[in-house]
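Appendix B. Raw example, untouched.
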Amino acid sequence: MRTEEPRPILLSEYRPPDWLVETVDLDIKLDPARTPVRATLRLKPNPAAGAPAPLVLDGDGLTLVSVKLDGRPLDAGRYVATSDRLTIAQPPNGPFTLEIETMVDPTANTQLSGLYRSSGTYCTQCEAEGFRRITYFPDRPDVMAVYRTRIEADRAETPVLLANGNLIESGDLPGGRHYAIWHDPWPKPSYLFAMVGGRLGVIATASSPNRAATWRCASMSSPARNPAARMPWTRSSAPCAGTRPRSAANTISISS
């Protein structure tokens, strides 16, 4: 955990990121005390940054498990890892894939930043710099990527699994577990990443703004909060009508 005073970031000091992230593929296996997070990043040099540079990824209180480059374990001498930074001094000259596995303790995270557990519900808070508490990443708003998130959890304890984008797959697993895969096709900064898992009440409605697609709009909340009373607009098809469909079956989920 960082204890120093935050240093102001001035516009006059801005420089483009040395590396860009094209895609982020997350695999998160939820557990109250030991949640492994595997992040697969597709990186490429930023042509606006000039000369090749080391890859420096932000972290905050992270426990590193493993690092792979293009599918192969990275030798310990080729990187330096601390709880707050992962540095590869001599990365490849062109695009490559980096797979990073970290271990997170959601219950012990009392900062309400990153991935934490509150009243039995797994939550994330990534704005402004919380994503670096989940995995090592160039955690800045000018690095935009497409996210695919696979979440796995105990079905009885965590029956609802949510993340950004569209639900593209879900199913049961051995041992009473289940999974859901979400894909967000629009590039976004890491501070907009969101994930929720828990026992959530739901109200939903379907809308067909045109004949090409049907939208399912769902509002989810802790059952004690009664989402039907808190968000009555979800009974209407209005929020769905103004959204351009991208597939034949789409879902909008809102949690509170």
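End of appendix B.
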